[in-house]
């Protein structure tokens, strides 16, 4: 049915592209796109099909109620599909509670968790959003004020479905964009108050999906400071289970990511549905197995932190949620996210470029430096072969110098005792240093934490009203600091102005943007989202104004490792925990949803400052190289002999693997939670090179050396392994390689070259 109507689509498509066509209900007109994604969106009457290379997403309008009913989200289905059986309506659950709903509203017999809850001006929370019309748009319109995936007409096609509640005059526009080559479907929602009264949006999910399966597992990432991104898998049970953040930020506690998988799904096999919310603020994820057996998943703004007033004519736009589907297990799901995010989310020109090897001063000297000692550190860094030197916290504060974490945040002028003539002399000298074994000059980067203020600062004394506060409740501090309210335009402008002045004051080519506490005592729950809109406005202004700066995100480590940040920051500091073994777990976990290219990972001193553990330098280096931004987190002057000796080889290796890590496909061959020998493999985009990272965590007493089987290679091709033996792809994948490690903390990086 869908395949046969293509001839007549062309004219309609042309009109739609101009944004003029609204196809009305009950029309038999259908629209499809030409070219490689020729059937990305196919409409037949009021049935809709979104097609990726290996995914189909289908729903239709129930003509008797105007509700949108889901038909399918999963592997490809083609042509006509069976109509759902009309359920018998007995008992308490009404018809809406017995069908799979695209955008479940509340109050009409569906007792499951709703995607939208509107408190109407009269006080009730019933709504009835019915299909009105739809349009198909080539490409993907920007999401006003929010980060979003982007692409041109060849990459993506968008279907907008307009819903309308005739009783309350509230409209909801569902926007679905398909990136066919990535098997990704992206949804966001606009709610518009077209009535005369004031309404309140109390819940708004970006994505809601009803899967017709009772047996599913859910996978998500949990943690806390210094132990982010622990993978958690559990059976979806009857009732609601979920997680989220009410900290104002995405947080370390839970990442805005969910996978639903079949219970038999593994890393490399089986069905996996991945959902990733492009948002940095308070969010919630709920999964509900209802009494009728369907499983509903919702991702969106956290209803506990939302009570959004919409006056007449006003619009609330939800963040977008990216959904991918894979038959190749959790690994296949991850690779779809990685490719999409590298190519269609991260806006920075550095997204797919090799990153400079950097040295960050934090763990090396903390707050303890001055102009001459920090210059010496830069000098030592250049002499090691470091390409980018980053001066971390401690450089600012005039009247309240930042000598410890109890003063100075907010006063972003160089500390005159440390830098009598400002930063320029230091930066000029540092950027005139030649990097060892190259003709390149050292580059200079700096740390900031713009959203925060110490009460012990000039800024706070001048603008006590700029911080988050709720009436006269005490403004409770964390790490001696308070949070500026980014919802206020004057705060946004303050940050944009001081950052502009700072970046123009010297040749600064990198910024680490930190954020070290959650939000308390907010003026209202909805301030969380208003803050985010303000923050995104600041990010987009600054990153557009300074496109040549390499921006790195950070929030006490990975407290904001989320897709919203990635729009502006091509790399994010993955964790404040730099312990090599802990980092294997954290980085493998983070890679569930995020490309390794986006991970900042540093080799630090031993005993490790967070765990006290001493791990050999090679192991620490190999783990850090699995991140797109490799660097050191130590004082070069304090290097131990073995570290100094290993450094040239490790830095050379890091440069060699970087292009493959940045743009390659990642395979988690074995997980640190499950084995003493975790392994990760990357295959370059063109398939000609691969690199295997292989670790032994604990000792291996009186036990055979295990085999590691590779993945994703070309079965027929031959690969040379570290320039030595040559084996076929079939042999490497079906039999594997075997390595022996002498002790705990063994590690190996193996290069494969396709012949
Ligand atoms: C609903 O109505 C439209 C227009 O009349 C028609 O194309 C479509 O097939 C109908 N759908 C169902 C499920 O009856
Ligand atoms: C939603 O509203 C915003 C703000 O007016 C607009 O930019 C966007 O195009 C709208 N999206 C849809 C799908 O209507
Ligand atoms: C919408 O409501 C108005 C009155 O409030 C009514 O006249 C009209 O028929 C309704 N339209 C639909 C499609 O239900
Ligand atoms: C809606 O809210 C605004 C601002 O709070 C108020 O001025 C207006 O009177 C309200 N309108 C109605 C119909 O209640
Ligand atoms: C800078 O710090 C170093 C090391 O702590 C110290 O030796 C030196 O005297 C300091 N220089 C200035 C100008 O304070
Ligand atoms: C304020 O900062 C100064 C250093 O600038 C420090 O000596 C003092 O203890 C701080 N006061 C508080 C209350 O933290
Ligand atoms: C840069 O360093 C070179 C020596 O490497 C020196 O000759 C030159 O004067 C320096 N330039 C500046 C601006 O300091
Ligand atoms: C791989 O190597 C084998 C044995 O040397 C050889 O027979 C075969 O032709 C090679 N295959 C390719 C694709 O080069
Ligand atoms: C190549 O194999 C030899 C002999 O097994 C070994 O000594 C050498 O380390 C290997 N080279 C590499 C680069 O692995
Ligand atoms: C695993 C799978 O089904 N892959 C298919 C995805 O779609 C492309 C293009 O249609 C096929 O070539 C693959 O075989």
UniProtKB/TrEMBL annotation:
Signal sequence bounds: 1-32
CDD domains in the cross-refs: GH36 (cd14791)
Cofactors, names only: Mg(2+); NAD(+)
One Pfam entry name: Glyco_hydro_36N
EC number(s) per entry: 3.2.1.22
Catalytic reaction(s) noted: Hydrolysis of terminal, non-reducing alpha-D-galactose residues in alpha-D-galactosides, including galactose oligosaccharides, galactomannans and galactolipids
Domain Glycosyl hydrolase family 36 C-terminal: 677-752
Keywords associated with the record: Glycosidase, Hydrolase, Magnesium, NAD, Signal
UniProt xrefs under InterPro entries: Aldolase_TIM (IPR013785), Alpga-gal_N_sf (IPR038417), Alpha-glycosidase_related (IPR050985), GH (IPR017853), Glyco_hydro_36 (IPR002252), Glyco_hydro_36_C (IPR031705), Glyco_hydro_36_N (IPR031704), Glyco_hydro_b (IPR013780)
Annotated ranges, domain Glycosyl hydrolase family 36 N-terminal: 67-310
PANTHER family: ALPHA-GALACTOSIDASE C-RELATED, GLYCOSIDASE FAMILY 31
Role description: Hydrolyzes a variety of simple alpha-D-galactoside as well as more complex molecules such as oligosaccharides and polysaccharides.
Assembly description: Homotetramer.
Family of this protein: Belongs to the glycosyl hydrolase 36 family.
The protein's name in its UniProt record: Alpha-galactosidase
Source organism (scientific name): Aspergillus cavernicola
